Amino acid sequence: MKKRTGLTNADAKELFEGGSVVVFKCEATKEFPITFVSKNVKDILGFEPNFFHSKSNAWSERIHPEDKDEVGKQFTKILADGGSTINEYRFKKKDGDYIWLRDEIKLQYDLEGNPKAILGACFEITDRKKSELEAQKVIEKELRKRLSYQHALSRCSNLLIDGSYFDTVEKALKILLTTTDTDRVYIFTREADEQHESLLSQIHEVCGEGITPEIDNSELQKMPLNSLPWVFRQISENKIINLPIKELPSPEREFMMDQEIKSFLLIPIFIEDDWFGFLGFDSTRYEKIWDEHEITLLKTASDIIGTYFKRKSVEESLLQQKNFTQEILNSLPGIVVLVNKKLEFLQWNKTAERLIGYTKEELSKMNAYDIIAPEDHKNLESTLLRVLQRDNEGQELTLLHKNGKRNPYFWRRNFLELDGETVFINVGLNISKQKEMEHALLEEKRLADAIINSLPGIFYIINRKGNYVRVNNNFLKEFDYTESEVLNMTPLDFYSPKEHKEVTERLEKLFAGGSASFELNPMAKSGKKIPYYLKTVRFDRKNESYVIGTGHNISEQKVKEAELLASVKEKDVLLQEIHHRVKNNLAVISGLLQLQSYEFEDPEFQRMVIDSQRRIQTMAMIHEKLYQSESLSRISVLSYIDELISQIENSVQSKHKKIEIETKIEDTDLNINQAIPFALAMNEIISNSFEHAFKGQDKGHLFVEVRESKGILHALIKDDGVGFPEGSENQSTSLGMTLIKALLTQIGAEWTINSEKGVCYNISFLKDKEKGSSSAL
Question: Quick one: average pLDDT of 308-325?
Answer without folding.
Answer: 72
